[in-house]
């Protein structure tokens, strides 16, 4: 048996995918026409169709499961959402001051701790390695500049 909250979340995600499909179609229609058979709007329209199909499927699945779902007791997880939003806001506020690697590491560690990650002692190393790898790829290899902070990374 699936709980009600999971079925509602599935339906919400399906609805968001349908909205995203509509946005992609609207944006694809604004692209300039070309003489070739496959213009620039072909691929976005294919992606929009796939988004719509999966979104519709998730909505149908959620509707079916919602009828048989059991109500779930309140878990008090609302504070986690508030804390995650706070971590994201702190990331955005501190990014220009401390740089990408430091703030992304903090965001990774705080999100992992709030979501109940096991092996807490390795989170800092994982977060630092992931943030440093993303910084290296985007800033050094691709050339998309990320805030480097006072330490140069």
TrEMBL record:
Which InterPro entries does the annotation name?
DUF1468 (IPR009936)
Q: Does the keyword Cytoplasm apply?
A: no
This protein's source sits in the domain of life called Bacteria
Q: Where is the DUF1468 domain?
A: 13-147
- Pfam family membership, one: TctB
Does Transcription appear among the keywords? no
Could you list this entry's UniProt keywords, alphabetically sorted.
Membrane, Transmembrane, Transmembrane helix
Q: Where are the transmembrane segments?
A: 7-26, 41-60, 81-109, 121-138
Listed name of the protein: Tripartite tricarboxylate transporter TctB family protein
